[in-house]
Amino acid sequence: MAPPRLARVAAADLDEDEACALLHEYGCLVVTGAVPKEACASAREYVDARLALALAACGSASTASPPPGYFTDTEKHVDAATYHFGDVLSPPHRRDLKLPLDPPVRACLLPALRVLGPVLADALTPDAELVELSSLVADPGASAQRLHPDTPITDQGFGKHCCLLTVFVALTDVDCKEMGATQVCPGTHCRAAHAALNAKSRDEETREALLNAAGFATPVPALLGLGDCLLMDSRCIHRGGANLDARKRRRALMYASFSVPYNAPGGSTYSLLRDLEGGARNRVSGIEKWLVP
């Protein structure tokens, strides 16, 4: 089966109804040119500096070091890791760095949500709450993750409806698969795809073949330019790719997830700093209040 392209829409041409229809059909959507490049470049510098400080607080020299808690570590380092980092699959050379609402973060997130806020409100209600704010960093040497959804769909009906959406903002050009681009399987935000993936959880080649045999697409790399966004239903099957970039470039994304109020689904890491918890303060309908200084 030839891999399909991810649906792509320019931010300047975004139609709310069209975007909602694409999201409903495919579970994912790329919106190009959503955030000014200058804001993304500043956010990237901020993330790099904050990551270095967070790693040092955890007693780690670089992202290549296993996160505290994998082996014997001091309580101080484990506590620092819990504060700064979210759980992430295949952590060597890869980190999920929790972010505060500092000016570089606001300057990057605000234009993205001004574009995509109406889509989030349509899918999740205007009262949808911020439940994650973080940066995914994949350095050269990061291995591919296993295919997974962030929110599972069960036989009991859990996950039947869209309850959580994530907006990823590219802080670097992700112009090739080898850079560790997120690989998304369009249309897999459904029970049949989840059942196929979990039928025989063996090696990744087998799991991917099971998806294909059930009629679902091969994972598609989400290639993004600086300032482009990937909007994804948390039930959509995906994985972080291996960073084998010949130019040794770091892949960095900022992401924010929003959930239906009082109904956050299970499965997600909920990577959010403690002082931002309590999403009633940070709703989609009020972005001009909590994102504008």
List the helices and strands and how they pair.
Layout: E1 8-10, H1 16-26, E2 28-32, H2 37-57, H3 75-84, E3 94-98, H4 103-124, E4 129-138, E5 164-170, E6 182-184, H5 191-198, H6 204-213, E7 220-221, E8 229-233, E9 238-240, E10 251-259, H7 287-290
Parallel strand pairs: 1-2
Antiparallel strand pairs: 2-8, 3-4, 4-10, 5-8, 5-10, 6-7, 6-9
Summarize this entry quickly.
The protein is α+β, with helices and mostly antiparallel strands and 293 residues long. The chain has helices spanning 16-26, 37-57, 75-84, 103-124, 191-198, 204-213, 287-290; strands at residues 8-10, 28-32, 94-98, 129-138, 164-170, 182-184, 220-221, 229-233, 238-240, 251-259.
Textual characterization of the structure:
The chain is an alpha+beta fold and 293 residues long. The model has no long low-confidence stretch (mean pLDDT 91). Helix 1 (16-26) crosses helix 4, helix 2 crosses helix 4 and helix 5 (191-198) runs antiparallel to helix 6. It has helices spanning 16-26, 37-57, 75-84, 103-124, 191-198, 204-213, 287-290; strands at 8-10, 28-32, 94-98, 129-138, 164-170, 182-184, 220-221, 229-233, 238-240, 251-259. The protein starts with 7 loop residues before the first strand and ends with a helix. It is 29% helix and 18% strand. The strands form two sheets. A seven-stranded mixed beta sheet has the order 1-2-8-5-10-4-3.
